[in-house]
Amino acid sequence: MNRVGIVGLGVISRAYLDTLADAAGVRIVAVADLDADRAAAAAAGIPGCRALTPAALYADPEVDTVLNLTIPAAHEEVALAALAAGKDVYGEKPLAATLAAARTVVDAAAAAGRRLGCAPDTVLGTGVQTARAAVEAGTIGAPVGASATWVSAGHESWHPHPDFYYRAGGGPLLDMGPYYLTSLVHLLGPVAWVQGASSRARDTRVIATGPRAGESIPVEVETHVTGVLGHAGGALSTVTFSFDAVASRAEPIEVYGVDGMLVLPDPNHFSGSVHLRRVGSAAEEELPVSAGYEDAARGVGLLDFVAGDGRASGDVALHVLEVMTALLDSAAEGARIPLTTTVEVPPLVPLTPAARWHG
Predict the structure, then answer these.
(1) Residues 156 and 263 in one domain
(2) What is the span of the domain harbouring residue 241?
(3) In 283-327, where do the E strands start and end?
(4) Which of 9, 40, 81, 147 has the fewest CB atoms inside 10 Å of its own CB, making it the most exposed?
(5) Prediction pTM value
């Protein structure tokens, strides 16, 4: 039984608590938040859990793993403090707000001899894992490439306080890219180089809902990013992420091979149908679910982590963050950029029913 302390009790924490509160592999023993009342309320709903300050949680000998659910700007600070206190750390994406900060966290974990994990864990569900099993089985032949597309007209249409999406560290690539790019790494392997291009359709956005409806906010980031990823194995992926498009009829992810193609479900979710179209056929067939955590939910990556597998690893998160950073740098410089990190693709998740991974 791994004893977990949670730092950060914002909206995302509810999804984790729904999965972890009664999971067999972990016990939530402490929570901490800058808002002491919020921490006390959360602790009151979890048997045997205590509300602590962050510093007290790091120092608590009853805590084995720190679950870092703070805002991205605080990810580095919390991770470093927890690692320095001898804790393993699993956190929400991104690993840190910048590539340099993420490298610092990875190096600190290695120096301390502690384990480091990071979302997204949606890639461990049956959607991406079933597709990956098909690729590895040779179902579509030698992989040639993939496409990944996520577009939106902008979060100001529904979010009452969308400012952070349009400030440094925001934008469609950093917001949604981790789900898609982590999937591409699982499917086609690490990325060796990128070539990016980007644009910004507007310098301001108007909030459409909530108490600030009608207020104009500045746009400080590129809001349409596209590019090519050169995978180390030779496959090429084309990607598009946008806050400037009303909609797209493109599939979330397609994977192309010399003998066929796969269509994947939304990688922001854990499951969904995977479809196969073979060379010479106009028909698509739905593949039976063959790999991944069934009925998975937010927090399955932490359970995988404490079980020893650690497929949602700090190394994968660092590599994906470099892919995104390099795409933006390439767009600014107009040049192809080689990556400095690589990563070993985590093991395939065997088909695992919820009764086994959750308990």
Answers:
(1) yes
(2) 122-292+313-338
(3) 285-286
(4) 40
(5) 0.96
**Quick one: CA torsion of 55, 60, 65, 66, rounded to 10 degrees?**
-20
Q: Which residues are CB-contacts of 45 (< 8 A; sequence separation ≥ 6)? A: 17
DSSP state of 352: B
- Do 100 and 180 sit in the same domain of this protein? no
Q: Are residues 261 and 325 in the same domain?
A: yes
Q: How far is residue 315's CA from residue 102's CA, in Å, rounded to a whole number?
A: 10
Confidence of residue 11 (pLDDT cuts 50, 70, 90): confident
> Is 33 in contact with 55 (CB distance < 8 Å)?
no
Task: Annotate 150-211 with DSSP letters as a single string.
Answer: EE-S-GGGT-SS-GGGGSTT-SHHHHHHHHHHHHHHHHH--EEEEEEEEE-S-SEEE--SST
Amino acid at 115: R
C-alpha distances in angstroms, 21 versus 125, 297, 332, 355? 20, 13, 45, 15
Query: Per-residue pLDDT tens for 157-169?
Result: 999 999 989 998 8
